[in-house]
Amino acid sequence: MRVVGGVCRGRRLFHFKGRSIRPTTDRVREAIFDTLSALFHHTLEPSAVAFDLFAGSGALGIEALSRGTGRVVFVEREREALDVIRKNLEICGLVDRALILPVDVKRGLSILSQRGEVADLIFLDPPYGRGLVEDTLKAIGEKGLLKGGGVVVAEHSKKELPCPVPPLRLAKRAGYGDTVVSYYVGEVYGEDSRLPGDL
Predict the structure, then answer these.
(1) Fewest CB atoms within 10 A around its CB: which of 21, 24, 41, 69?
(2) Whether pLDDT at 19 is above 60
(3) Using CA atoms in the order 75, 184, 25, 41, what is the torsion angle rounded to 10 degrees?
(4) How far apart are CA 174 and CA 181, in angstroms?
(5) What is the DSSP pairing of strand 179-186 with strand 146-157?
(6) Where are the beta strands (DSSP E) in the chain?
(7) Per-residue pLDDT at 18
(8) Is 196 a residue whose pLDDT tops 60?
(9) 5-9, 58-62, 90-94, 164-168: which has the minimum mean pLDDT?
(10) Residue of 132, 137, 63, 135 lying closest to 98 (CA atoms)
(11) Environment class of 32 (CB within 10 Å of its CB; exposed 0-12, middle 13-18, buried 19+)
């Protein structure tokens, strides 16, 4: 597993096989960032903040940092995964642009809300088949954690197609074998917030 673009391109990342860990393949990761670059490029700018939820190895958040996102908060509770995230940030020289919350996602979202944090970009890649995508989308919307015009990139099984939860709306969906990637955009009230990728 490698960083596929940006200043850390080609850097090999540590990963591991935990019971609930399913790393995003390089192919899917590259497709995600091609979409972000083409349609949602504001999420990859130095002023942008991203949350990497169910972060696993941290590959998605690290890819965002490599491609220009200013700061990423990694939320992950498994000890082995936390060690891997720290190692990957160190080998990529990105420690100073990252924050790690060593808690489960439900607790992590509450902490971020209490701190007044909001994101331009949120990666959501939980274990499949547990209804976690829709539950987490709902929590993101209720807690106001996504900026207007911000994007949630949610990976899920093709067997589960989570519904958009206001103020999030589905802008794009793409399939890669058994994996589906859905892009949800935060509403910008009082403006025409449609983006090029909107369905």
Answers:
(1) 41
(2) no
(3) -90
(4) 5
(5) antiparallel
(6) 49-53, 71-75, 98-101, 119-124, 146-157, 168-176, 179-186
(7) 58
(8) no
(9) 164-168
(10) 63
(11) buried
Residue 156 CA neighbour count, 13 Å, CB half: 22
Choice between 199 and 25, residue whose per-residue pLDDT is larger: 25
pLDDT of residue 26: 84
Task: Name the architecture of domain 28-186.
Answer: 3-Layer(aba) Sandwich (3.40)
CB atoms within 10 A of CB 82: 17
How far apart are alpha carbons 104 and 10 in whole angstroms? Answer: 30
Q: Which amino acid is at 123?
A: F
Query: Would you list the domain boundaries of the chain?
Result: 28-186
CB-neighbour burial class of residue 178 (10 A; exposed 0-12, middle 13-18, buried 19+): exposed
Does the pLDDT value for residue 120 go beyond 70? yes
Q: What is the pTM for the complete model shown?
A: 0.92
Contact 2/12 with Cβ under 8 angstroms? yes
